[in-house]
Amino acid sequence: MKLSIFKETTARVPAARLRQLFEIVSRTEAPRQSGEVNLVFTTDAGMRRLNRQYRNLDKTTDVLSFNLDEPDHDGETFGEVYISVTRAHRQAEQYGHSRYQEYLRLTCHGLLHLFGYDHEKQAEQKRMQTREDKYLTAVREANKR
Questions:
Q1: Strands 77-84, 63-67: pairing kind
Q2: 37-83, pLDDT tens digit by residue?
């Protein structure tokens, strides 16, 4: 699988670590899957538009994931993850960590949604949180060296 990163804002993002996270998650969760995942950093206004259009909710959110058709060939799009930079910055401050850490957390969350995870029920939420923690720890550990 391949990750493409797009920015609809001027925010700096940790592209190398985002790619590293994507490699770890996709190799584990979808080892035989082909195609491309688009990761899009946007504004609150952009997220509100998407949320209104696809979920009928007239408000912003931090991360949205969209599964597209299973790709028939390499290079076709498997899914898209959108992250609100505005919301990520607020949450980073609220949670007491860096913006980069929040970008990684939201990216991991969005990727797990693409690969079939959900958090509607408490057991699902716990399972998803455990996976997020595992992958974020793996990226941190890989960058300690």
A1: antiparallel
A2: 999 999 999 999 999 999 999 999 999 999 886 655 555 778 999 99
